[in-house]
Amino acid sequence: MRTLKLTLIGFLFITTLASGQSTDEIEIRRLEKHWTELLDKGDTTSLLKIWSKEYVVNNPNGKIVTPKEIVAIMKSGHVFPSVERIIEKITFNQDIAIVMGKELQQPASMNTNKKEWIPRRFTNVWIKSEKGWQLTARQSSQIVDK
């Protein structure tokens, strides 16, 4: 039985190394997907657990907002359009994870045709604390055709 457990642990370790992803990277990818799902559901209680108290967003409209402002908008009935996030790079520096990539935002018309969704670039900053990884900063900008 002990041999089986050690074999299984070894297999999981080798699989993680072979895929090139650390457990922290796997967790950040999971959290990126999870917090987007929570935003889609309007689950402010769970979002406040994922966002750090210092969470700040530089949104695509060029406005800097905090959790208090985001929650107030959501509680007033605002529904954020869906977003499909494509992570291109995760960089770790000690207890900081920087996630960069592209995202497609559903237009205000709530059109479901993804070919018409709005392309943006994003950067999300996560900090690992005693509570685990928490989203601390976010910046998102619409890609403008030249």
Automatic annotation (TrEMBL):
Q: Which residues form the DUF4440 domain?
A: 28-135
Specify one Pfam family.
Answer: DUF4440
Superkingdom of this protein's organism:
Bacteria
Q: Which residues form the signal peptide?
A: none
Q: Spell out the SUPFAM superfamilies in the cross-references.
A: NTF2-like
Q: State the name under which the record lists this protein.
A: Nuclear transport factor 2 family protein
Tell me the organism: Maribacter cobaltidurans
